[in-house]
Specification:
By secondary structure, the protein is α/β, with parallel strands linked by helices. It has 2 domains: 74 residues, no CATH class; 133 residues, Rossmann fold, CATH 3.40.50.1970. Helix content is 40%, strand content 18%. It comes from [Clostridium] citroniae WAL-19142.
Amino acid sequence: MDVRELLEKVKTGAVDIEDAQKVLKDLPYEDLGYAKLDHHRKLRSGFGETVFCQGKPDAYLLEIYRRFYERDGEVLGTRATGEQFKLVQSAVPEVVYDPISRILKVERPGKERKGLIAVCTGGTADIPVAEEAAQTAEYFGCAVDRIFDVGVAGIHRLLSQRDRIMKANCIIAVAGMEGALGTVIAGLADCPVIAVPTSVGYGASFHGLSALLTMLNSCANGISVVNIDNGYGAGYLATQINRLAVR
């Protein structure tokens, strides 16, 4: 429950002042010792805190996820494993897991998705990172159009999708190898492009460094670049842009 919802319930009498006080005492964060849960973040930035699952000890992850779920009714987790899904599911049966994007989430039903973000990939191997971006944006309330396998090695595939791409308020271009997709799309589109380098490629791609440097050195205008394989960061930034477009 966010602060506005809580205040509305106090106003209508659905929640009494003492219970509201118990909720508010955890602002700006709830201290678990090993983690400080930022329940105030959505009020400040418009986005609730996301749980980065990778590397967390089982007991810590389980308690962090459970606390967010009990308070907010929905949680987004990234970089989760199948084993972590089973662990969290034991305490939060509503949780769902996508092994491609490694997203572990509980969403409120009937969520409205506004605007439009296009998520494009150079190849099929880039889809896991693209899905992390797409599902992040959807979780935060955006409509997403997935346009996969339109890399520059067969540029006619990309050009055939130009009408779809041009409808978007923001475009996420996900590519490995030499990472040229973002530059080409930015040369066609009239909206911001977020380039995401992936670690897909042969030896001299240096696990995504080649694509990262290409995207950073793009001659096209209107491109921002996130870190290698950072689909979540791209989805978050695209959501901020999309929200401005639909106000």
